Amino acid sequence: MKILAQLVVVALLISSCNGQSNQMKKHQHTNALVNETSPYLLQHAHNPVDWHPWNKETLDKAERGGKLLLISIGYSACHWCHVMEHESFEDEEVAQIMNERFINIKVDREERPDVDQVYMNAVRLMQQRGGWPLNCIALPDGRPVWGGTYFPKTKWMQQIQQVADFYINNPEAMIEYAEKLAEGIQQSELVRFNSNEAEFNWDDLPQMVTPWAKRLDNIEGGADKAPKFPIPNNYIFLMRYAHLDGNFELQKHIQLTLEKMAFGGIYDQVGGGFARYSTDKLWKAPHFEKMLYDNAQLVSLYSEASLAYNNPMYQEVVDETLEFVERELMSKEGAFYSALDADSEGEEGKFYVWKMEELQTLLGADFKLFSSYYNINNKGLWEHGNYILLKDETDESFATKNNLSLTALQSNVNEWKSLLLEKRAERIRPGLDDKSLTSWNALMCKGFADAYMTFDNEHYLEVALKNAQFIIDKQWQKDGALLHSYKDGRSTINGYLEDYAFTIEAFIRLYEATFDKTWLDRAEQLVEYSVQHFSDSESGMFFFTSDLDDALVARKMEVNDNVIPASCSAMANNLFLLSHYLDKSSYERMASTMLNNVKEMMPQYGSGYSNWGVLLLNQVVPFYEVAIVGSNALVKAKTFNQEYHPNKLLIGSSKESDLALLESKYVEGSTTIYVCVNKACQLPTTNVDEALKLVK
After folding, report:
1. CA–CA distances in Å: residue 152 to residues 70, 71, 81, 653
2. How far apart are CA 501 and CA 442, in angstroms?
3. Is the omega angle on the peptide bond into residue 227 within 30 degrees of 0, that is, cis?
4. What SS3 class is residue 419?
5. What H or E segment, with its residue span, contains residue 6?
6. pLDDT at residue 57 tops 50
7. pLDDT tens for each residue of 481-538
8. Are 543 and 537 a contacting pair, CB within 8 Å?
9. Alpha-carbon gap, residue 464 to 163, rounded angstroms
């Protein structure tokens, strides 16, 4: 027994030593990123590369030591960022070169979009293309000299050593190049004041839309190229323009695109929600990462499209997407997380795709009908024997072809989705980026509010209000500033213009949904802070960063609309709306100045100015102020909103109000509707149908 006890002790000691050894092996390296909150930075905290976060201490260290900066920028859901990490940043040989020759900085582009803007601009100037991972080498003062995106290990080592050697041997030449490149960065996308009188008319719009329409895919929807990104602000503008223009061909394209996206692999047919983009022209094979900002804007797009086109499928897409967001991207505090990774178990899309044999086992006798509905055939076949679920016809068409009632088919589909969702939950999940960004939360807050306004689902309003309160409680500081990022109880990083612009937009929408003036007051407070700290007095535009932030190589303006509307265009639209709500002509002049500054650029690149196009539409068509006053104001507002009129705002109160459009309009015991343009109102009515006739 004594010998047995000794053996047990020895075994425990060996086990303990092995455990310590494994733990040391697991975390053989630890760098300065270990103290960060960003999931992307924490992914690199145990690389052998001696990474530093972007901060003043790191930049001061580089300047003191005269070392080049190696700046690597990505985000947690980025597939090729993971590939480069595994190939290069986890490699001891690569790390040795990087550590000896550079001060290495890792940047989460979602936390520091200001830094990303500067170095993405630099890479595009150098190479005419950009992407992530984004890798730049810069002088110790931050001015870039070399850059690119993904590099395989061998090429990466060769390239960075060549740059480091050139700096040692030809420092003057490199500094001269850095100066010229910095000038280019400072000048690009820098909008100057247009001294010409601000004049806008309808003819400005076809000049923008006509060349753009030639680049649309009228067979598969979207842009006539691959990869295909769902860019919701493009389709919000095109939908409003087509409606106001009576452009039937463009309306067909918009509905085609909405249907193809909802049918394709880019849409999660089992669990709802959209992936970031399709790698092909068919919307079939997605890049499987799911981003909060895409889903937020797509909810808003499909909600508005439901009003415009009365297609019940759009509500299904909205309901399923919001269910996904609540299930997988929402915290108990009401905050929304940022993203789900494309990869799980080291494979892109593994969580979302299916083997035929697995589906046959799960579905049994239903497999034949299921496989026809979701294209478990050559059309749905992807890679390595995996199938992506996708549709190619409406439920009505499929039911008719298969001699089924629509009700029976949809009952089957709901059962299939529940079964597959339950089975999929057993898989190893993609990584979750659980930081909450103010700007993206505001987009999703507005998405829930838009869905409420369209579908009258009270739960959606409750979620929107809870998220808005999260922003107020956690991200809004006593001095009026917003912070950008939140994770694990910590609010960090001074806010960017996008945080203010999208939060203002969400608060305006919450006012329309509730007629609670508090939301307009809060929106006005954020505008005033933005004017104080972000505006450019020379051009009338807004900078992306606050005047309280440390200076970068350039202080950029975000002007071009992309997968997210530009913060400048969002702010200009906010100013226009608030000028009507609050009767502030100064806000209207600011919006007009901003639009006038970019007007000449809009015909050249319509898709890059679509959110500006929304503002242009509102400038050149009658913009209706629909004031509803009385105890039944919200009910009548909901009814009014069921007819599609994008060139309007709703303003209302159940009692007397000091808002200019509502003053002296309250009548005891009655709910009255006033349809106005520039505060000139037609005769009031208590009948919604009569009021709708006054809006063209």
Report:
1. 16, 17, 11, 62
2. 9
3. yes
4. helix
5. helix 2-26
6. yes
7. 999 999 999 999 999 999 999 999 999 999 999 999 999 999 999 999 999 999 999 9
8. no
9. 50
Q: Which amino acid is at 34?
A: V
**What tokens does 676 get?**
């106005």
Q: Both tokens of residue 214?
A: 């030639």
Q: How far apart are the first and last CA of the chain?
A: 96
Inform me whether the pLDDT recorded for 574 exceeds 60. Answer: yes
Identify the three-state secondary structure at position 149: coil
**Angle between helix 153-169 and 92-101 (nearest 10):** 20
Residue with tokens 């007095």: 537
What is d(CA 141, CA 88) in angstroms, rounded to the nearest whole number?
Answer: 25
Please confirm whether the linkage preceding 133 is cis (ω < 30° from 0).
yes
Residue 190: per-residue pLDDT: 80
Is it the case that residue 13 has pLDDT exceeding 50? no
Any idea what DSSP says for residue 609? G
For position 26, what pLDDT does the model report?
67
Neighbours of 20 (CB within 10 A): 10
The whole-angstrom separation of Cα 484 and Cα 501 is: 12
Report the C-alpha gap between 362 and 664 in whole angstroms: 65
Angle 481-525-113 (CA atoms, 0-180°, nearest 5)? Answer: 40
Q: What is the pLDDT of residue 346?
A: 85
Residue ranges of E strands in 211-350: 277-278, 286-287, 290-291, 339-340, 343-344, 347-348
pLDDT at 253 over 50: yes
Rg of the chain, C-alpha, whole Å: 27
Query: Quick check: 483 and 477 in contact, CB under 8 A?
Result: yes
Distance in angstroms (rounded) separating the CA atoms of residues 694 and 598? 33
Q: Check if the beta carbon of residue 557 is closer than 8 Å to that of residue 543.
A: yes
Query: What is the chain's length?
Result: 696
Phi, psi (rounded to 5 degrees) for 37: -100, -20
The token pair at 323 is 């269910």
Least confident of 15-19, 128-132, 255-259, 568-572: 15-19
Return the H-helix or E-strand segment holding 172.
helix 171-187
